């Protein structure tokens, strides 16, 4: 069930009509964003492998889509737990359904653009996953956004999210340092794939996944009816083809686009879309500059060691992250919405704690809302489902913590991640 967004000229209430009006495009900012993106593209094309400029474009499209749809994971979980509205959760289920449909043949037949090996995100199930995903659920509600939400909110000028990102990076770095303890000293099961660990194959795993998504979507409808939850408020939007560049996109359209872009990412670099491994890399490189022997950490042994010695632009996740920020910046400027926001003592302290919890939790849980939840479930990994359940539990607890920092727990539905 979706909410029709009325054109401004059909709205009679002057207050609502004003809230739906589009701002003028910020042309100088658009030009600046496009120029920076073009320069970065040329630099990557000249200095890095052929995949890097392609991934930057995919990142731009991801950020553009996330901002235009205000496609949230944090807000979707919060709306579900606080007021019972499941519209965004149903969009998640559509996104995951399209993703598994695309991922199944890619993973089954090893389809890639450049002949590299293709592998999904299938991670162990153990104490580290349980603790990490629960921490992440709390952190994203305090920090004001998930991993993808942090990036696209920064692109949109939400000032406090810079604080969240800084402490997200610190938390991810400390989590990388501690990860061997969580994974080697504490109990865990081997990675479990619905496709390869159960005998179902990718076809059978696809059927099971689609059934699960349908069941979850149906449950959200039942909860909505029982709780008589309010619908999501409409956001400003243009009409016709102009809506592609200016205004709010339907959540379900964005869900499909995000799933397709994730599949293209998988075929381009051999692994799905991820975000937070780059944060651990950035933080570790910064720590190394201050004399910390990060190369001796268990996290950076084996195949990961080369990343510490290479340029961050050689890291495909870093390039995707920069693309997301730039794509969201261009999208916000096109809608006339880029504006730095106010920082208060409450949201500052919440962002510090939330960022630390998300960074640390993402490393323990083998990813964030993108790498573990979206990428894990799309890869038919059991850990992705467990991540979602524990992040919801963390969200429930965070609803009682948010007021301590002056953050609202709305009875109506907000629309940002």
Automatic annotation (TrEMBL):
Family note: Belongs to the TsuA/YedE (TC 9.B.102) family.
Identification of the protein by name: YeeE/YedE family protein
Pfam families associated with the record: Sulf_transp
The organism's place on the tree of life at top rank: Bacteria
Keyword match Nuclease: no
Keyword annotations of the record: Cell inner membrane, Cell membrane, Membrane, Transmembrane, Transmembrane helix, Transport
Annotated compartments: Cell inner membrane
Chief localization: membrane
Organism: Salinicoccus hispanicus
Membrane-spanning intervals of the chain: 28-46, 52-73, 94-115, 121-139, 160-179, 199-223, 244-264, 319-338, 350-374, 380-401
